[in-house]
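Recap quiz, item 2
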Amino acid sequence: MKTQVNQVGQNGDPQLAQGGTTTREQCLVLDATDPLGFTRRRFHLPEGVIYLDGNSLGAQPLNAAAAMQHAMREGWGDQLIRAWNSHDWVNLPSKVGAQIAPIVGATAEEVIVADSTSVNLFKLLAAAVTMPEVANNPQRRVILSEAENFPTDLYVAQGLSALLDGKVVLRTVPRAALRNAIDDSVAVVLVTHVDYRTGHMLDMSKLNADAKRAGAMVLWDLSHSAGAVPLALNNDGAELAVGCGYKYLNGGPGAPAYLYVKQHLQSQLSVPLSGWFGHRQPFEFASDYVPAADMRRFLCGTPSVLGTIALETGVRCFEGVDMARLRNKSLALSRLFRQLVEAQCGALGLQCISPDADDERGSQLSFSHDHAYALMQAIIGRGVIGDFRRPNLVRFGFTPLYTRYVDVWDAVAVIRDVLEQQSWRNPQYQQQKTVT
Amino acid sequence: MKTQVNQVGQNGDPQLAQGGTTTREQCLVLDATDPLGFTRRRFHLPEGVIYLDGNSLGAQPLNAAAAMQHAMREGWGDQLIRAWNSHDWVNLPSKVGAQIAPIVGATAEEVIVADSTSVNLFKLLAAAVTMPEVANNPQRRVILSEAENFPTDLYVAQGLSALLDGKVVLRTVPRAALRNAIDDSVAVVLVTHVDYRTGHMLDMSKLNADAKRAGAMVLWDLSHSAGAVPLALNNDGAELAVGCGYKYLNGGPGAPAYLYVKQHLQSQLSVPLSGWFGHRQPFEFASDYVPAADMRRFLCGTPSVLGTIALETGVRCFEGVDMARLRNKSLALSRLFRQLVEAQCGALGLQCISPDADDERGSQLSFSHDHAYALMQAIIGRGVIGDFRRPNLVRFGFTPLYTRYVDVWDAVAVIRDVLEQQSWRNPQYQQQKTVT
């Protein structure tokens, strides 16, 4: 991490040079010439706040309030039940899924919006372990995951295992040992592409290839990567994925999530959450479940219309955005943040625990500190919003669509100030909140 | 059905006398003296529409748009991630559940808002059949339901049965045969309290007692009753229930649903959809799932905040409403509608198929007609909104919170007119829409 932001390259992307100290003025120049500068205007960003928590809840698209108001007034309010046809609500899950598809490197027919990430994990995990080649092979009964996976991923696997009376079992290994642990006992590898705590990013292509060789499937949780790092699900051989709508996709609190299933697999998967919206003809009101032939079989109950409309405005913030360019900016922001923290706050107890190598890191950085919880509360008290993660981490996310270089510079100045003044010793910052 | 609305009783509730013909003027008098007249002002009701489809999608509470705007601006927009604490989003599912509780006759600690009705059906069905006394008894493996149940109820039971490889099976009988079919092979009786097609209402107390005697549980689907007929889950011995947020509870399109579990059972049920919000301490980010001790164990993923906020405004429309009085009005509206249709449209091909007896009927009426689909389209074209249900039914719902007696009178006048003119022969009304 000896890089530094100090000039803009010929293609408009930021160029990081070695050594020296970046100034606030140089950050302003980078912002003024940022080829992605135009997307910041697509968001509502409150005054006095530097928001480095878009990896937890994305900022609100400027169009979201109007879209919601439109749906409330012209849709639900005036059209009432008729809006399911006149506003085409019935196709919203497919429509917004198709908009997410290019962000994750899938075709429009491979993504659909539905339910929560947790519910979708259950659907695809259950569908994978009940495929005949798995169900008929008593040797292949392991869901392989990593001990430090995001909790809900592990919980859902535990719940499925209990429901199936141990017919499938969850085995966890350290993240670094995942690839070597895929043997012919493994039915599904359940992994999060970018780790929520450390920001570590797996090589999707290699892990998919390993799994394929062993005859296992991989279920990717894209919650901490989609919208922040380029994804190429099709090209990288991914078969199953789920992801969150309210992080980098800016869909709003508790936004619906989405699922990806590679086209050739869709008709082979049976979803136990067989609600009426997954039926081939829901409005026939037939007594027997016949799943839709396409991604709609991964729907369950009546879709959340208001939530999906908000999510659509978030996804549309990616229109005209080149994902490689987004990645360049994400890396430049992260490197700058890390460089400034290490130069200015390193001696004050902050230590970066995120991977150093660009290709092993998503769009976030985590730092350990002995008083991480109170420290983050104190930083938030000064208007710089990141979050705390157990046991001792402060975490900052970089959302290239709306984070500026000068935000990074100013944020680190605040963090240094809080550390120097030891503001975290203030008792008000030690009180635990419900959501951390 | 020889009753007639023609005077207001001493308690303010409508009194129906025998014989004679109700006039539009008499309807206006009933409205002017309606003790529930004050609740109509709580809703946005578009001009030129008589809405008799609140049993499918409830009308929009007048407060809904402002509540949504507040959540969008002050919450998500300005507070960003902090709103989970400052707006207490984390407790929304319990808070709105507690508001639903009195409407269904439960305690505040027995109801929680989550996911969709379909997903909640799966949770409670799976939890019921994995209780030790069921799982350890190979004889008790039947989910008993009725052949004409709402499709998603049947589909979810079919999905669970397939996932469990036939360890539990769905058995359906005609609705009238349900009570006699509960034997010691039955683990769970899965029934809808008010039938979506006919409006037939089951006697909850008797069915619960029958099931208890046979050692079976009952999972009630309240989607077509809660908010329209008084419910007394506790008093009637109900143990498990789910219901829909977007019908009589007015929660908006695809609103979150809710679950009810009798207090003593909550800690005994294991939910296979064990997402992180069901964990005893979600923000500890522990690796092992330990369910919350209370209703929160029936949550799964991150709750839909926007959807739950809209639902809250719908539920609050019941504030100050006496449910017995609501029922009186519902019955008076239904009787008046039926009386007028039979008097004015009976010879024109409409035949009521809903139960005649008040205590066997919810808050809706269905009529058969040879050209029911096109007929309903023609009626909707004239501003009276009901819906079509296969194979040959037009269906009308009566939502006492906002439907007036004069609406009933005017609606029947339109229906008679459409029938007399045979407007349904117009080809534009024969075109099938996606959602019927």
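Chain B touches chain A through 98 residues (CB under 8 Å).
The first strand of chain B starts at residue 3 and ends at 8.
End of item.
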